[in-house]
Amino acid sequence: MDDDFFDTRHSGKALELGNNTAYRGDDINLLEKDPTLKKIIIAAGWDVNVFDSDAPDLDLSLILIGKDGKTRMDEDFVFYNNPQGSGGAVKHHGDSRTGAGDGDDETISLEFSGIPFDVMQILIVLSIYKGDEKRQDMGMVRNSFVRIVNADNDHELTRYLLDEDLKGHPETAMIVGSLDRFGPKWHFRPLGEMVEGGLREVAMRYGLIIANQ
């Protein structure tokens, strides 16, 4: 796993979120937020609140779902070991193992025009690498968020703050939300669905088989 990653860190100034904050159960029309939208960056950031053990290694992944509710091919699973999908329209920009520092820790870019017409939904997943093996869980994570940004102008469209939904949870993965296709429009729905068994279990739900993560 490469420690270099696409950096969209901020200068340390407090962000004015305004009405950009998303909550579980929302349905956010991204093109209504920004009609110029062509390409987005999905960014995740976090810190860890344990000091006497290895820091949990969080991973940001996307799973592209077809009309039958399953992935169409292995390349529909975009994560640190498969950093590109849909002919390069989806790109993972590298793994951060510690979540150290402020701002975004991992990012995936997505160009809407390159997403195949039969992809109807894209799941956004956060998981802990070897979480069960290391007895680490999502409840150890703090100051966590996933945000969606217009890649062309750095305009933040929405930000889902995860701490309340992660607090006290023993699971090792979360389906953060989904990007749902409605014709030319894409809607972001924050889900906050906790998953036991980590990334492997999430992948298996959608027709993929991977090694233990």
Give the gist of this structure.
This protein is mostly beta strands and 213 residues long. The chain has one domain: sav2460 like domains (Lipoxygenase-1), CATH 2.60.60.30.
Supply the helix-strand structural class: mainly beta
Strand content: 35-45%
Uncertain stretches of 5 or more adjacent residues:
1-17
CATH C-level label: Mainly Beta
The strand count comes to 13
Q: What's the number of helices?
A: 4
What name does the CATH topology carry?
Answer: Lipoxygenase-1
Count of all domains: 1
Q: CA-to-CA gap between the ends? A: 13 Å
The coarse silhouette is globular
Summary keywords:
6-stranded antiparallel beta sheet, 213 residues, disordered N terminus, mainly beta, globular
Q: Could you describe the 3D structure shown?
A:
With 213 residues, the chain is mainly beta. The protein has a single domain, classed as sav2460 like domains (Lipoxygenase-1, Sandwich). It has helices at residues 30-33, 131-134, 163-166, 198-205, and strands at residues 21-22, 28-29, 39-48, 58-66, 77-78, 84-85, 90-92, 106-111, 119-128, 141-150, 156-161, 173-182, 185-195. The strands form two sheets. The protein has a seven-stranded mixed β-sheet. A six-stranded antiparallel β-sheet has the order 2-13-12-9-4-5. Strand 10 and strand 11 (156-161) form a beta hairpin. The longest helix is centred in the last third of the chain and has 8 residues, at 198-205. 39% of the residues are buried. Mean pLDDT is 86; it is low at 1-17.
